[in-house]
């Protein structure tokens, strides 16, 4: 058996009478780690690539065989969907995590950087995602709603702290950010994106605050 292969939990000696059924927890953990490594390698590859990413290259970067990749993700669409879902989960959870570490206005600015990374990763997968969503092979995620909810969480904390405006709708902030990313999509000037994000945060501060 090659190092990539993941034996079935049913493999091994039979259960003995009077003893609990055997569960192969280490094997399940091994399979979970392989899946996580594949998603991480695919995320990095999709973010960096300007063209179609070869699946065998992703398997190589993850340190597994192509057979392991196909066991977890039978199609390119399945892998893209998993990367997209993992990115969306991470960027939305990141809002609360940053609030635990930073004041609301600084947490919002840091979260915008993480959202920009998500948009960059998503951009490299759009062709696959759009065709899969259009065909019904993949369900369309509630991306905007979840992003707007994350922004709302940070805004509410900023309102309580008196450092962010109370008269701004979270979805308006989402629209502003999408405008920034759309307008800078063709630029190779990350500093311009940073300047525009700074302007968005400044626009969200209460009148008279610095």
Structure summarized in a few sentences:
The chain folds into 2 domains: 23-74, Arc Repressor Mutant, subunit A (Orthogonal Bundle); 77-210, Tetracycline Repressor, domain 2 (Orthogonal Bundle). It is built from 8 helices and no strands.
Layout of SSEs?
Elements: H1 25-48, H2 55-62, H3 66-72, H4 76-99, H5 104-135, H6 143-161, H7 170-183, H8 190-203
Feature tags:
210 residues, mainly alpha, Arc Repressor Mutant, subunit A, Tetracycline Repressor, domain 2, 2 domains
- The end-to-end span amounts to 64 Å
Number of domains as seen in the coordinates:
2
The name CATH uses for the topology of the largest domain is Tetracycline Repressor, domain 2
Q: CATH homologous superfamily name of the largest domain?
A: Tetracycline Repressor, domain 2
- In DSSP terms (H or I, runs of 4 or more residues), the helix count works out at 8
The largest sheet is:
none
What sequence of helices (H) and strands (E) makes up the elements?
Answer: HHHHHHHH
Protein model, in words:
The protein is mostly helical. It folds into two domains: about 25-75, Arc Repressor Mutant, subunit A, CATH 1.10.10; about 75-210, Tetracycline Repressor, domain 2 (Orthogonal Bundle), CATH 1.10.357.10. It is about 70% helix and about 0% strand. The chain contains eight helices and no strands. Helix 1 (about 25-50) packs across helix 2 and helix 7 (about 170-185) packs antiparallel against helix 8 (about 190-205). The longest helix has about 30 residues, at about 105-135. The protein is elongated and about 60 Å long. The termini are far apart.
């Amino acid at each position: 058996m090659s190092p990539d292969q993941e034996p079935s939990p049913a493999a091994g000696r039979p259960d003995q009478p009077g003893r609990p059924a055997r569960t192969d927890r280490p094997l399940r953990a091994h399979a979970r780690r392989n899946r996580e490594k594949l998603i991480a390698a695919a995320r990095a590859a999709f973010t960096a690539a300007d063209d179609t990413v070869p699946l065998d290259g992703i398997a190589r970067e993850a340190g597994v065989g192509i057979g392991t990749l196909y066991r977890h993700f039978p199609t390119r669409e399945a892998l893209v969907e998993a990367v997209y879902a993992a990115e969306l989960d991470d960027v939305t959870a990141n809002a609360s995590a940053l609030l635990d570490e930073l004041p609301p206005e600084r947490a919002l600015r840091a979260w915008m950087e993480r959202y920009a990374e998500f948009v960059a990763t998503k951009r490299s997968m759009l062709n696959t995602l759009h065709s899969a969503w259009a065909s019904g092979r993949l369900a369309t995620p509630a991306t905007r709603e979840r992003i707007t909810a994350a922004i709302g969480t940070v805004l509410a904390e900023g309102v309580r702290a008196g450092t962010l405006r109370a008269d701004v709708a979270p979805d308006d902030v989402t629209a502003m950010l999408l405008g920034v990313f759309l307008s800078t999509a063709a630029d190779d000037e990350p500093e311009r994106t940073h300047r525009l994000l700074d302007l968005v945060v400044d626009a969200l501060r209460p009148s008279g605050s610095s």
